[in-house]
Amino acid sequence: MPISDERLRYIGEMEGWEYLTSSIKSKELTNEFIKINEETKNQDGHIKTEFEIPNNCKVVDVTGIEVPFIIVFESHIIINRFATKKKIQELIELEKKNNS
Question: Could you give phi then psi for residue 19, rounded to 5 degrees?
Fold first, then answer.
């Protein structure tokens, strides 16, 4: 079933090396993801954030796509790249908890 235009609105954009949660199922987990994201806000944007992605982390690879576009809903959170690098294992564990 196609998504109707009235359900879509711009909520932000993703850069490289950011973590996108699956649909979050509880307010408690929402708060935990937000806390991780807030810990590293306003860091120097020139700091390198590349890191080795753990095997147990699923990846959305948009390499080679001319105009990559990912539709997410308000129940998802985009974790900034600094928090993702610093807390990737914790994010993966929270994701497991969210999907159990």
Answer: -100, 135
